[in-house]
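Backbone-to-sequence.
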């Protein structure tokens, strides 16, 4: 006996078993196989000492994720000079205490942060195929889509207050400063472009000339934000949001970025050029997933330790 369309039942069963095994791997192993990416970026002025920055992003904490919490806590052992949190800490409105617990040891270090859409709004079940459809139509988030209706608001304010109480600097459409023992750093941040909360006009004007170095920070790496930072002369931009594609094809890469950034730059270090100016761009693949799609494939969860060195 044969299955419909002439496919033997043994083949059908084999494909079904392979798909099931892939799902078990993606949800049960890879989504909890936390990694540390290490990169060197030559952006500092000549003669300036190296700086080690830990970027964490897209934690998407859900209550009870003990392994993720323990792994985030362990990152404090890296002893970074400062921490950059590029948003989407929540995927559960009750998980604010667990986010603060997970990041508690890291908040012993100087840090800055921006928010992502999932910090403000609770996730909803969504067909993953919609990401492919939106990519084809050039629509992502609120960019090209209608306004959100009936969204569930997350209690993000206590999380913000916890970050602030620890001395982390809020970069929501504003500028900030970290004065380290051997460097005076400036930061320019944007609220999340994915939900059209970015207001670059409030922070335009380029790097702070009185600081040793200035970093641009944004959650979602939409081209309008990258263009603005680069045109203004920022040499380094840090972002998250993409999850590195989350479900990738081995030897091919990501299918979507969930924004208008190309898939070649969905994660890791690359560059962005506008006219005659070029910035380094680092996009973190993040360490979590939406609670309704808790899978990763060929794209393990990560944090990144970037060593900033002097330009040649």
């Amino acid at each position: 006996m044969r299955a419909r369309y002439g496919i033997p039942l043994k083949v059908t069963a084999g494909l079904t078993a392979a798909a099931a095994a892939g799902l078990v791997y993606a949800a049960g192993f890879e989504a909890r196989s936390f990694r540390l990416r290490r990169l060197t970026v030559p952006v500092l002025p000549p003669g300036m000492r190296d700086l080690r920055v830990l970027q964490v992003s897209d934690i998407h904490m859900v209550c009870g994720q003990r392994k993720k919490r323990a792994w985030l806590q362990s990152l404090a052992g890296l002893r970074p000079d400062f921490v950059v949190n590029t948003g989407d800490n929540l995927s559960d409105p009750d998980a604010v205490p667990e986010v603060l617990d997970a990041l508690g040891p890291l908040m012993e270090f100087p840090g800055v942060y921006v928010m992502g859409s999932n910090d403000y709004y609770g996730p909803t079940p969504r067909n993953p195929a919609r990401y492919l459809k939106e990519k084809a139509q050039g629509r992502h988030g609120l960019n090209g889509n209608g306004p959100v209706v009936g969204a569930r608001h997350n209690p993000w304010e206590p999380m913000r207050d916890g970050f602030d109480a620890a001395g982390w600097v809020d970069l929501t459409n504003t500028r900030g400063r970290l004065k380290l023992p051997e460097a005076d750093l400036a930061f320019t941040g944007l609220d999340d472009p994915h939900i059209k909360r970015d207001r670059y006009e409030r922070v335009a004007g380029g790097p702070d000339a009185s600081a040793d170095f200035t970093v641009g920070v944004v959650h979602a790496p939409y081209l309008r934000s990258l263009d603005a930072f680069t045109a203004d002369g920022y040499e380094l931009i840090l972002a998250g949001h993409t999850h590195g594609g989350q479900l990738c094809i081995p030897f091919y890469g990501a299918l979507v970025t969930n924004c208008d950034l190309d898939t070649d730059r969905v994660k890791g270090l690359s560059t962005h050029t506008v006219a005659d100016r070029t910035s380094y761009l680092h996009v973190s693949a993040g360490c979590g997933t939406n609670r309704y799609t808790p899978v990763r494939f060929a794209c393990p969860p990560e944090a990144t330790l970037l060593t900033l060195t002097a330009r040649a």
